[in-house]
Amino acid sequence: MVNTMRDQNPLVSTTIQDEHFPALYQNANQASLSAQQRYLCCQKFHIACLILGSFGAALATIVPDVSDRWIYIVLAIILVIGVILNLVSRVRRYDRVWFDCRAIAESTKTATWRYIMKATPFMDDSNANQSFVKQLQRIRDARPSSSKDLAQSLNANAQVVPSFMNKIREKSLDERRDLYLKARLRDQKNWYSENSRFNAGKEDCWFVTVTILQVLAVVLAIIWAASKSLPVNIVPVLMTCAASAIAWSKMKRYGELAQSYSLAAQELGDQEAIFSNVTTENDLLTLVEQVEETISREHTMWCARREVV
């Protein structure tokens, strides 16, 4: 996630990019994005095969007997492809890789912000670096099955503890406070707000789509039963499309995410409102703890909804 701060302060005008975070975050983030893309592609093509299969079955009822053999051959091939895609997704466990690596990436990002803000357990400068490296090891060891996926996304140029992090630790209280406010708290609040609206809109869109497909299927079923005047019975096709739309919506969990993201955004907004009261290191430490707890709790719930231990 890239955050650009516009201010007269040279630190606050810095752009926070992925290379400013530890190598573990960069590797886990890339592995998660790749696995997510593969998983969603497999699901999309699987659903498309089911819809094409139902359409082919309906088409076979109206073509000449000479041609229906080839339609059924093509239909069988399409269905076999769908089965193969489903098996590939199951065997490669793209969803598990996606969720586990995302958990590693977000845990690493939380530890990074605690480190650069001198929060617990990285308050002591004499052993902060060593404690941070051990924390990264614990995060990585908590999900040993992800080691292979992390290795495949390895960035040789990434640093375990980038120098950028230590430069921030050396800044004054005001500089670190302003950076945290804009690059972490507001960034996350805006992200949750935007994605809450996005998921709410998607939920409504898919609900309308399913409703239209079901109503259309009912109307055509009545017409078919009354007169059988339709050239082809596409009711099964419409019902397959409706079922696929429901399955996709449930898989994406639009409704749940819209609600949980909205609550997280509201809580971060409350914490932002009291940020002006931060005048001491202890005040900053307390607020950082609260913000990171809010973000970590939301991500823990995100993992739990997907059965990630």
N-to-C terminal Cα separation, in Å? 24 Å
The sequence of SSEs as H and E is EEHHHHHHHHHH
Individual helix count: 10
Give the overall shape. Answer: elongated
* Overall number of strands: 2
Helicity level: over 70%
Q: Main β-sheet, in a few words? A: 2 strands, antiparallel
Q: Which structural class do you get from the secondary structure elements?
A: mainly alpha
Counted up, domains total: 2
Cα gyration radius (Å): 25 Å
Strand content: under 5%
How is this structure best described in words?
The protein is an all-alpha fold and 309 residues long. The protein folds into two domains: 19-170; 172-309, no CATH class. 76% of the residues lie in helices and 1% in strands. The chain is built from ten helices and two strands; from the N terminus they run ββαααααααααα. The protein has helices spanning 23-60, 65-92, 94-116, 128-141, 147-152, 163-169, 173-227, 235-252, 254-273, 281-305; strands at 3-4, 15-16. The chain has a two-stranded antiparallel sheet. The radius of gyration is 25 Å and the shape is elongated.
Name the features:
elongated, 10 helices, two-stranded antiparallel ribbon, 309 residues, disordered N terminus, mainly alpha
In short:
This protein has 309 residues and is mostly helical. It is 76% helix and 1% strand.
Write the layout of secondary structure elements.
Blueprint: E1 3-4, E2 15-16, H1 23-60, H2 65-92, H3 94-116, H4 128-141, H5 147-152, H6 163-169, H7 173-227, H8 235-252, H9 254-273, H10 281-305
Antiparallel strand pairs: 1-2
Helix pairs in contact: 1-2, 1-3, 1-8, 3-4, 3-10, 7-8, 7-9, 7-10, 9-10
